[in-house]
Amino acid sequence: MCLSIPKCKALNISRKKTPTKREYHLNGSPLATVSEIKDLGITVTDTLQWSQHIKLISSKANRTLGLIRRVCRDINDPDIKKLLYYSIVRPQLEYACELWSPYTSKDKLLLENVRRRATKFILNYPRDMSYRDRLLKLSLLPLEYRREMKDLVLIYNARAGYIDLGHHDFFRQTVVRQKTRNSSELNSQIPHTKQNNLKHSFYYRSINLWNKLPRDIKNVDSFHTFKGGF
To answer: For the CA atoms of 48, 45, 10, 32, what is the dihedral angle to 10 degrees?
Structure first.
């Protein structure tokens, strides 16, 4: 229930290129129509694209990293700097990423650039060390790999019955008519769609990731064993 009328907004989401404009009222007062709105820390747009949200969180993470650099000028211990990055910066780049995980190179690079700057800061700006070498030295994975792991963990928890995502409406078991090396009754069908906002949404991309997992990992009966499998 919205108690403050000025804080309430109307966000129209439609597949039509020129959607019908409607005016909404609450308690007799008209609601302002907006093209984007922020709810629980997630910026949702009327096109269901996540570029604006990714731009905002990248900017916020960069500001946070800059603050740490200014405050911790006298700290040279990489372990302390790494802990600060883990605790303050990285959560801003991954909060609810199962919902908004990017699929364009531009958006992926925007997030990864924050991590590039962070690795330089943690290692006290080493010369002649590539980003890949810095990740290896710090035992870090690219953010894209971490997002894929989070997708798989969430899907495993849903399939195991630990949480209810309503995934049965999206996950339909594959019918194995001819056994091949990649066929498995544990796989799911990938629904067909031409829309990018659906094709790269959580269920569609996670089904694709799940089907590529080895059978022995899909069959584990422990969450910790599954998470440790990759």
So the answer is: -150
